[in-house]
Amino acid sequence: MTLMVVKPGLQTTLQGLPFSGYRHLGMPAAGAADCLSLALANRLVSNIPTAIALEITLDDAKFKVEHACTIALTGAASFIHLNGEEKSLHSSIPTKAGDEIHVGAAHRGCRSYLTLAGDIDAQSILDGQSTYLGAALGGFRGRALAPGDIVKLTPTASKRETYLQTPDNLRPVIADRYLIRVTAGPEFSALSADQRQLFFEGKHEVGQRSNRMGLNLSGIKLAPQNSTQMQSAPVFPGTIQCPPDGESFLLGPDGQTTGGYPRIAQVIRADRHLIGQLRPHAKIQFAKVTNQKATEIYRQKLSLLTPWLGTVSLW
Amino acid sequence: MTIAEIHACDDWLSCKLDTLDKVHAATADLQKQEIWQEVVAGLDSVAVQFDPAHLMPDEAKDLFQTQLNSLTTHLMTKAETVTIPLCYEAQFAPDINWVAEKMDLSVEAFIALHSSAQFSVTMLGFMPGFAYLQCLEKIPAIGRLSKPRQKVAVGSVGLIGEQSCIYSFNSPGGWPIIGRTPIKLFDPDRTRPALLTASQRIVFEPISSAEFNALLNETLP
Description:
The complex is a heterodimer of chains A (315) and B (221).
Chain A lengths: L1 E6 L4 E4 L19 H10 L8 E5 L3 E5 L3 E7 L4 E3 L2 E3 L5 E3 L4 E4 L7 E6 L1 E3 L29 E6 L21 E8 L8 H9 L2 E3 L7 E5 L14 E2 L4 E3 L7 E3 L6 E2 L3 E5 L15 E6 L2 H19 L6
Parallel strand pairs in A: 13-21
Antiparallel strand pairs in A: 1-4, 1-12, 2-3, 3-10, 4-9, 5-8, 5-10, 6-7, 6-9, 11-12, 13-20, 14-15, 14-21, 15-18, 16-19, 17-18, 17-20
Chain B lengths: L5 E3 L3 E5 L3 H11 L7 E4 L3 E5 L7 H13 L11 E7 L8 H7 L4 H10 L2 E6 L6 E5 L13 E4 L3 E4 L3 E4 L4 E3 L3 E4 L20 E7 L1 H8 L5
Parallel strand pairs in B: 5-13
Antiparallel strand pairs in B: 1-2, 2-4, 3-4, 6-7, 6-13, 7-10, 8-11, 9-10, 9-12
């Protein structure tokens, strides 16, 4: 079973579970930037929540199904058309050989997830299959999909076709402004009281130099103290660092494993999937929570998702 | 060992340690604890990541504290030495003249000095398998290129003074390049994907371009 890429848009990669346990070797997490939308899309085609999917970025994209298959789309896309006919996001879509899929450009948010019932063929490395573009590893030959590429799929063994829709209360709101919760980073003290107020009360704007590695935050210029005296230290997806020029940046799934700038804040695990929907010019406000609260929010989110998704983890 | 304060985020913890040897010893020990999903070394700190679905940050912090305390000081004494073949010929070493000049040496004298010096792997980072090295001998500060290169070839060795690095993939970079190794620093299909690990000692062995090409096709198990 295969899917042909007709128009991949800005950047379409194969993404699923992040790599785990290799950060000490310098290997970033990679994996779906919005893991919640990935899990929801996989549910609609009866895959496990972390199965490999096509992560589509901003632009519209076109594909051709070469064999009958159930598909689904979640995330930021403005529409999905099958042979020119409008279908719904967040629902199972049966397709037949030769059908053309058109995924509409995102008007809000950034990424969409196209899932196919079955196992997408992807390069297996380091116990994972996601694409890490920085070192051309995993996924589809380590790179973004190009026109003419054929994505292969092992279909799910004779499962009866079921029509599913994401329950309304679980559909993430795709927006152009987000409130994102953070905890204090190890170098939070690099910000004076006034600077902290500015960081939390101001509106940050996602800059143009944003991709899966990280997003630069413009709009608010901070003045960190002693920022040049820091030694390289571990960082994670969701870490917000502030270099001496005061323009902080937020690390994404492909972010490096260590960094040399003050780690002023850390996006909480429960909200990290929102990073995948941040597009240039999106507005962000950060709210500080305690670690205890962050964990409660995370566990609440998981228990809300479990009845629909089964045991699931977010990253 | 006595440790400084631990900083906790909601799913990772970090602790500053006062020597690099302690960082390496702590990292090696923490990696044996299955509770941590990631154990990452910095230059003066170590961090661990955990699953907040199963562990509260306070519980994780207590565990981390206990584990670090019980490390006592059985610090690693015998560091493993790895020999890395390095070709210093001009085609692989675009900045060797400039670097030698900065150090007031002829290229030959620079190669003699560089290939007799010992380096220690301080940290892996930047890219998979990318190694930061510290020279154990005195080397004057050289500095970075005024204009970073768009593409530094895989295997290139950069030197900015006592700090050095080996590029594990083609990538942009601003370190002056004084040679290139044909050995793959990172190969996900190997049993040990990264050739180097923090705390190892490195020496460079000069090779010709013919040897470079011969070694390029060899693969490690």
